[in-house]
Write a structure and sequence with these properties.
57% of the residues lie in helices and 11% in strands. It is α+β, with helices and mostly antiparallel strands and 432 residues long. The radius of gyration is 35 Å and the shape is elongated.
């Protein structure tokens, strides 16, 4: 399983066109109201005609996209990026005509940055932030100053130092709020995708388990009717040895015998058992052997050690998709990083069962050890291998629901070590 889910450049980001259109209509209403009130009520001097033209440009775009696309359209990265860049440039153009950074509405430059940091990837978020900072630099030097006799505002009321303070505050806030929102949103996105992947993996495991049970039931149920048909066919063969149907009945009998052999082979391969106990109930040693069997080869050797406790007949547990998938992920990671061998130890304690998986690979790097179990963790020194974050995250998440917990043990230059601690009561086992 790929442990990293890379987002393509054109991937949908669950942001609907209707949402951005609604935000733009609110912005248009606010801009128009501010321009009209400032010009006619407060008698602030600026070029109202060009301002209205810029607002109408935004209205035109909103109407155009509403006609061309359904409002339920899910936007991708590029569409959202250009949408936000347009809004940012339109706002900067209005501010250029209405006082630049001396206009109190210049703080609205932060709005596209928040949306970008919440929904876009790192590269596009940085690009929009750079565009915003360049715009702030431009507005600090180039703008039409505001003046109003009613409010007593003159062209030279703001000193260069005051404009510098406003510029500094907006630039610092832009960087901070973008970094903060992006980090929070990115963590949320990664966790949400990892949980989706874990649910998908768990669903696949449950389907496999259900298919195995169905196979076992089919094998068991087919035995009786086949035996009945075989007995009847033998009687017909005996009664029609010299008849025209004799050869056909012998062919039918041979095919029935073949069906019996197939069913017997399935039974001998442990695919069937009366009441499905073999499928739905298993002991720990058999569980580990089932998981290890696809990985065991001449290159990597698997050694399994267990206490006498695990040889008892009563130490059986229900086949749990969560447990099977969690252990599979951990053993898969151990196999990927092992050089020669992987050791799996089963230990019994009074209220717990401890499964310890140790490989002889490079071990967990010290810089990533505190973050093990988080999604999308990557080890830079192993660029040729897949990151181990998602697999361990899924395992940790599945077991934490009810079965137990996972511990990662740091052993410098001694290989990776993962302990799976299972609560006996959660597995239906008695404490000892």
């Amino acid at each position: 399983m790929n442990n990293s889910l890379e987002l393509s450049q054109n991937e949908d980001i669950n942001l609907r066109l209707r949402t951005l259109n609604l935000i733009r209509w609110i912005a248009v209403l606010g801009q128009f109201s501010a321009v009209v009130i400032a010009f006619f009520y407060f008698q602030i001097v600026f070029n109202i005609y060009i301002c209205i033209l810029l607002i109408l440009l935004s209205v035109t775009l909103n109407i155009a996209v509403s006609v061309l696309y359904p409002l339920t359209k899910i936007l991708n990265y590029n569409e959202t990026f250009f949408y936000l860049v347009f809004d940012l440039i339109q706002l900067v153009s209005l501010l250029y005509l209405t006082g630049g950074l001396t206009n109190p509405f210049c703080v609205l430059i932060l709005a596209p940055l928040v949306i970008a940091a919440t929904y876009l990837d790192f590269r596009r978020t940085v690009l929009i932030t750079v565009v915003a900072i360049i715009s702030l630099n431009f507005l600090a030097y180039y703008y039409f100053p505001l003046e109003s006799i009613t409010l007593g505002i003159g062209k030279d009321d703001f000193s260069g130092f005051e404009i510098f303070l406003i510029w500094s505050a907006l630039v610092i806030t832009s960087i901070f709020i973008t970094a903060y929102c992006f980090r929070v949103a990115d963590d949320s996105r990664k966790t949400r995708q990892a949980l989706r992947q874990s649910q998908l993996s768990l669903s696949n495991e449950e389907q496999v388990s259900a298919l195995m049970s169905l196979t076992a039931a089919a094998v068991h149920e087919l035995g009786t009717p086949l035996s009945t048909i075989s007995i009847i066919n033998k009687e017909l063969v005996n009664n029609n040895k010299d008849g025209v149907l004799g050869e056909d009945l012998l062919v039918i009998q041979s095919q029935l015998e073949r069906c019996k052999e197939i069913l017997e082979r399935l039974r001998s391969n442990n695919l069937s058992d009366k009441s499905n106990e073999f499928i739905n109930q298993l002991n720990f040693v058999r569980l580990i052997n089932e998981i290890v069997s696809p990985y065991d080869n001449d290159k990597i050797k698997f050694d399994i050690f267990f206490d006498d406790y695990f040889e008892r007949d009563k130490v059986v547990i229900p086949r749990s998709a969560e447990l099977v998938h969690s252990l599979t992920n951990i053993i898969d990671n151990a196999f990927k990083y092992a050089i020669n061998s992987v050791e799996i130890s089963l230990k019994n304690e009074q209220e717990k069962i401890i499964i310890e998986i140790v490989d002889d690979g490079p071990g967990f790097a010290s810089e990533i050890y505190p973050f093990l179990g988080e999604p999308y963790l990557r080890n830079n020194r192993d660029k040729n291998k897949e990151g181990l974050g998602l697999g361990l995250f899924i395992s940790k998440n599945l077991l934490a629901k009810s079965l137990g917990e996972i511990k990662f043990l740091y052993r410098k230059n001694k290989g990776g070590c993962v302990q799976v601690i299972l609560i006996k009561s959660a597995l239906g086992l008695q404490n000892e």
